[in-house]
């Protein structure tokens, strides 16, 4: 019975994929409609963040983690982090933000979570040329590993599954427990330092690494970064753990969303 319900919800979402595309397109147009720089804001903010950390850890303080060129090392972690961070902050508002449409339309309610993940995911994909440009600037210091380059879509897929799962948990829980938004502000700060953004998985002491890679972002970011820093690759175990845990989070998210859907419609 549960499998039939899940299959029906997946089929309903798939049949509305064109509406999802329209919602994502609308989000991006509205976001940049009154902005002079438009799309470049999605690049500028993480780049400024990378510039600050590069300055602090290369010009002011010495560091023992990461690899050179450190700016490239940073952006390969910060750009995918911004996607994850954006979803964590916006998923808690995904249902409340469009409460009237959530109540009045016959669209699968999960579509509002998929919309959030997809909109921010498009912004992330559009930052990939910036990473490529930085790599080109350091072409004498780095080499591209074509094997890992071909696996970038896999990393994007795993991160998408993870973020949709997290969104399916946060969106309904935030309706029932509004304080979750404040909790997420603190949680994302912790998660930033608990993920390999400023450092690599290989920089984590061996004694803690098996526990550390339980965080799916560890294996995901490691896979992105290995395109330019293949010597930093932590191994396929981290990737497999990331994939399995992301699928687990997705399954939990689908169950939580389905279980709270009726209550959500009463609360919003």
Characterization of this structure:
It is a single chain. With 268 residues, the protein is mostly helical. It has one domain. The protein is built from 13 helices and no strands. Helix 2 (17-32) packs across helix 6 (111-125), helix 4 (70-91) packs parallel to helix 9 and helix 6 (111-125) runs antiparallel to helix 9 (152-176). The chain is globular, with a radius of gyration of 19 Å. Mean pLDDT is 89; it is low at 1-5.
Q: How would you summarize this macromolecular structure in one to three sentences?
A:
This protein has helices at 2-15, 17-32, 40-60, 70-91, 99-104, 111-125, 128-137, 146-149, 152-176, 180-193, 206-212, 216-225, 236-267.
Topology:
Blueprint lengths: L1 H14 L1 H16 L7 H21 L9 H22 L7 H6 L6 H15 L2 H10 L8 H4 L2 H25 L3 H14 L12 H7 L3 H10 L10 H32 L1
Helix pairs in contact: 2-6, 3-4, 4-6, 4-7, 4-9, 4-10, 4-12, 6-9, 9-12, 9-13, 12-13
Total helices: the number is 13
Q: What is the number of independent domains?
A: 1
Number of E strands: 0
Q: Order of SSEs, N→C?
A: HHHHHHHHHHHHH
Query: What oligomeric state do these chains adopt?
Result: single chain
Which bin fits the share of residues in helices? over 70%
Helix/sheet category: mainly alpha
Q: Note poorly predicted spans.
A: 1-5
Q: How much of the sequence is in beta strands?
A: under 5%
Q: Per the principal axes of the C-alpha atoms, what is the gross shape?
A: globular
How far apart are the termini?
28 Å
Radius of gyration from the alpha-carbon trace, in angstroms? 19 Å
Return the average pLDDT rounded to an integer. 89
**How many strands, which pairing sense, and closed or not: the largest β-sheet?**
none
